[in-house]
Every structure is written in C-alpha cells, then in structure tokens.
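Please, structure for the following, as tokens.
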Amino acid sequence: MVWEAFTQYTYPVKYEEYVTKASAEFDVPEPLIYAVIQTESGFDPEARSEVGARGLMQITEETFEWLRTKEDFGSSTTTFADLDEPSVAIAYGTYFLQMLLDEFDGDVTTALSAYHAGRGSVHSWLEQAKYSENGRTLDEIPMDDTAYYVQKVERAMGVYEKRLSDRENENENLRRLRTNFERFVEAYVVPIMDSLFEKLKK
C-alpha cells in the first residue's frame, strides 16, 4: 500500500477527461500523454520553464504559434496564455505529439527527441549515419539532456501503461476501493509528501 501511494503521488492520473478526449481525437496513446505531462510539468498547470514554455505539456510560444498556423486545429482566439488551462494545454501538446509521431514514422523515441530538442536538431541528427542508420529514426541521441528526457518519459509510459491497464481490468468492487484509496492519498498523503520534499529542497 505504501508503494501504491508513492506511485500515485509520483505518477498521478489527473485531467482524465481532457487526456481521454485528446487521445481519441489525435490517436495518441493515453500513457504517452500522461508521461509527457508528468515529465514536463509534474501536473502543474501553471508550470514555466527557463525558455518560457508554459502549461502542463510545456509548449513554447514559438511552437504554439506554429501550431496555430495549421488550418485543421485550434481557434484563432486562443492565446499563448491560454496554455495555463489544462484543456488547452493537453489539446495543443497532444496535437504536437501526433504531428511528431506522424513525421517520424510513429517512432516514440525520435518523436520525443524532437519534442524536447526541436525538429531541426533531430533532422540534423538523422542525416548523420552514426546516429541514424535509416535516416528516419534515431538509433542514438547525441544530446545527454535529451537522451535523459526521453528515458524519463519512456519509463513513465511504462508505469502509466500498467496503471491504466489495471484500471480497465478491475471489477466494480475493486474500482470503488481504488477510487477511495486515491481520494485518501490526494487528501492526506500528497500534502505530507509535498511538505517533505519542500523541506528537502531547503
């Protein structure tokens, strides 16, 4: 039970309505969406990065404006500041993931590398045989921080795949128990863990 509480704290399942909707609309697996949110922002909807990325999935203003040029997505009235809204952030982030997966033949590693380091960097790596044998997907990631990022997201994906699979397979009694347990963790365990980590940072 302690491990389950820690897993729920570290890999929470939040904003389910928006994640489910975006997953269905853009055909991106839910575990991947959750994993990117967990890695990028830790589920903080008002997260900011050093380079000015914002929201749950940490979209930069440059990427946001580029996505807005796509005729089949978004609204002309949506602003960069709207990425603080979970529904908007998840929609834009998932759409971006879909575009990258399409661009890189569905290869998650290469798509995540582009999400982190930029499409231009990844295309330059793909042109080098030491990083890509086929010129379409990466065999090796030359930037350490991007390699570490991809590793973190893929590890989180594995956790979320199991969590979501367990949810699908549980019966009604287990579902009620799990729901009550998650509420207990959210109400009592999460504040304690947050306080502990804040003290460790000092």
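The mean pLDDT is 88. Residues 172-201 form the longest helix (30 residues).
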